[in-house]
């Protein structure tokens, strides 16, 4: 079909120079695909270089402490990806002797590897004819063929995967998968694509029917939860502070934070003062409390909006296991807390 020839020709002329495209090593391809889930290429690139430098093979990654992995991942978000990455590296290194499964079906069994990632590794590393279906692919195919199926529904993914498989030249699955994703990322973008320069502007049904802005169809809306975090930044007589590890399941699992007072809404000075004196910090003699209003932030995650306030709390004792600001920087933090620490250190 002319579709794949036109697409691949466009790709060879317009593709970005990305490091994971220069190898068939399944370790590097797996690493890049996990990093690029929910992440733009420009943001993920420095992390890819950091990880491949620190962990050049799956064995180094497997043998690393989880905290070191989380520290290198800091700022990339969706930290369950990093924890799953580490566990899967240990499984591959220890149980599979460092050899990645060579087929799509076997790759799917790895922790943290879904259909898209398994298809990417299988096609890019092993040239298996299995299509990748991500947001870019949904967008390109739904527009070109005028498909109104709801991409939020599971059956739709099978429909698009079958179509992509039919379009794919079976002898060149890797380049076809790369091409269709790149086309969605660079040309057939979500908002206001420049259809005047598109190589498919003579055959795209969405363009003909003036439906480019309404495809693909996605009906399911994510429910956003608002949460209110008040971080208590202790400072003892030595200038040290206190942090804790988030061990419960949920956001930021196994990352560090300051003592947390979570509330049902934004709270004022009097509420925090009363609460910490009567409860969360009742064992300390508090000499001063100050809201760091300059650091108040709304941190948006995919399913939660975190309304974060920082409160400086001076105490008249030495904090047990207290740390200075320089020591703090070696721990993995959510980026919003790490940024606060960086700014505080600069102002000292």
UniProtKB/TrEMBL annotation:
<dbReference type="Pfam" id="PF00633">
    <property type="entry name" value="HHH"/>
</dbReference>
<dbReference type="InterPro" id="IPR000445">
    <property type="entry name" value="HhH_motif"/>
</dbReference>
<keyword id="KW-0378">Hydrolase</keyword>
<dbReference type="GO" id="GO:0000701">
    <property type="term" value="F:purine-specific mismatch base pair DNA N-glycosylase activity"/>
</dbReference>
<protein>
    <recommendedName>
        <fullName>Adenine DNA glycosylase</fullName>
        <ecNumber>3.2.2.31</ecNumber>
    </recommendedName>
</protein>
<keyword id="KW-0408">Iron</keyword>
<dbReference type="InterPro" id="IPR015797">
    <property type="entry name" value="NUDIX_hydrolase-like_dom_sf"/>
</dbReference>
<keyword id="KW-0234">DNA repair</keyword>
<keyword id="KW-0227">DNA damage</keyword>
<dbReference type="InterPro" id="IPR029119">
    <property type="entry name" value="MutY_C"/>
</dbReference>
<keyword id="KW-0479">Metal-binding</keyword>
<dbReference type="InterPro" id="IPR003265">
    <property type="entry name" value="HhH-GPD_domain"/>
</dbReference>
<comment type="similarity">
    <text>Belongs to the Nth/MutY family.</text>
</comment>
<dbReference type="Pfam" id="PF00730">
    <property type="entry name" value="HhH-GPD"/>
</dbReference>
<dbReference type="InterPro" id="IPR005760">
    <property type="entry name" value="A/G_AdeGlyc_MutY"/>
</dbReference>
<comment type="function">
    <text>Adenine glycosylase active on G-A mispairs. MutY also corrects error-prone DNA synthesis past GO lesions which are due to the oxidatively damaged form of guanine: 7,8-dihydro-8-oxoguanine (8-oxo-dGTP).</text>
</comment>
<keyword id="KW-0411">Iron-sulfur</keyword>
<keyword id="KW-0326">Glycosidase</keyword>
<keyword id="KW-0004">4Fe-4S</keyword>
<dbReference type="InterPro" id="IPR044298">
    <property type="entry name" value="MIG/MutY"/>
</dbReference>
<dbReference type="Pfam" id="PF14815">
    <property type="entry name" value="NUDIX_4"/>
</dbReference>
<dbReference type="InterPro" id="IPR011257">
    <property type="entry name" value="DNA_glycosylase"/>
</dbReference>
<feature type="domain" description="HhH-GPD">
    <location>
        <begin position="35"/>
        <end position="186"/>
    </location>
</feature>
<dbReference type="InterPro" id="IPR023170">
    <property type="entry name" value="HhH_base_excis_C"/>
</dbReference>
